[in-house]
Design goal:
Layout: E1 4-5, H1 6-11, H2 16-24, E2 28-32, E3 35-38, H3 44-55, E4 60-61, H4 63-70, E5 88-91, E6 100-103, E7 110-113, E8 116-119, H5 121-128, H6 134-146, H7 152-155, H8 158-161, H9 167-176, H10 187-198, E9 205-212, E10 215-223, E11 228-233, H11 239-255, E12 259-264, H12 265-270, H13 272-288
Parallel strand pairs: 5-6, 11-12
Antiparallel strand pairs: 1-3, 2-3, 4-5, 7-8, 9-10, 10-11
Helix pairs in contact: 4-5, 5-6, 5-9, 6-9, 6-10
């Protein structure tokens, strides 16, 4: 079970007075001087609800807690962004025992999920940059777009990207994606993009349409000029029918001249260097086949 220092808690907006209040409310448990853990990481939803109720009628779940309530990639239990900490904010100028007085969201920035008031997805994403690195915000952002919890237009709005707290990180993340690009199909696909980008490789197009034998197929990613496509298998197992459909699609795409490579969630997360090398070799092979001019790696 993760243990937090006072400095770590402060990055989530939990000031010493808020920490003391959450200890008193049974939401945080001291483990040693200057260190705490969540009281009930398994019952985090009920803990969030209790904290909002105790903080007052206008209190709202914010930060990583808000991302967890929305179920955004990277912030669900088991993911690196999930802390189990209770992050609650109240409107400026109001006092709340468990709240952090920094909330300046308008009324329509708040939604209710399972009876808990929480920042809407777009505002929650903008606030994540205060304590979260860009890659993790990107994973959450792609999942929010995929589930239609917000829109690209809303996320590119200066009202979000120019906020003092976290807006710069959201602006950086939105600058990574081409305008109008479809959201990734899974968290594994988002992480594949991040691995390719970090490896210095050309960033592929998303959801590439390939017409083969008179039928339009879609590959997760593709480098059109090179004739190379990538399929990314997520952690979920889709069953025999989906596996047969994927195999047929791959065969049709291959027969019409494309090189198809497959990578898995495990490959992307645990062996990213191998993924970069595999993609690089595929693109280099396309160059040797005369598909494209050499590119600078």
């Amino acid at each position: 079970m993760r243990v937090f220092t006072a400095r770590e808690l402060a990055t989530y907006g939990l000031t010493p007075s808020v920490v003391a209040a959450q200890v008193g409310a049974g939401l945080l448990v001291p483990t040693s001087p200057g260190r705490w853990r969540c009281a009930d990481p398994e019952g985090w939803r009920s803990a969030f609800a209790r904290a909002v109720s105790a903080a007052g009628p206008r209190a709202v779940v914010v930060g990583r807690s808000a991302a967890a309530v929305h179920g955004l990639d990277g912030f669900v239990p088991g993911d690196e962004g999930f802390t189990g900490l209770v992050e609650v904010a109240v409107p400026r100028g109001r006092h709340a025992r468990l709240g952090v007085q920094r909330l300046d969201a308008r009324a329509h920035d708040v939604v209710e999920i399972d009876g808990v008031r929480v920042l809407a997805a777009a505002s929650a994403l903008a606030g994540l940059g205060r304590s979260t690195r860009a890659d993790l915000v990107e994973r959450a952002m792609e999942s929010a777009l995929r589930r239609r919890l917000t829109t690209e237009q809303a996320l590119r709005s200066p009202a979000l990207t120019h906020r003092r707290r976290g807006g710069a990180v959201l602006r950086e993340v939105m600058a990574r994606r081409p305008v109008g690009a479809p959201p990734t199909g899974s968290d594994a696909e988002t992480r594949f993009l991040q691995v390719v980008r970090a490896g210095g490789l050309p960033v592929p197009d998303r959801q590439v349409e390939i017409v083969a034998n008179g039928t339009a197929f879609h590959a997760d990613f593709g480098w059109r000029d090179h004739g190379v496509a990538t399929e990314v298998d997520s952690r979920r197992w889709h069953g025999a029918t989906a596996a047969e459909r994927d195999a047929r699609r791959q065969n049709e795409i291959t027969v019409c001249g494309w090189m198809v490579i497959r990578v898995t969630w495990h490959d992307v997360v645990f062996t990213p260097d191998w993924v970069v090398d595999l993609v690089a070799r595929a693109l280099e092979a396309a160059v040797l086949r005369g598909r494209q001019r050499p590119w600078a790696r």
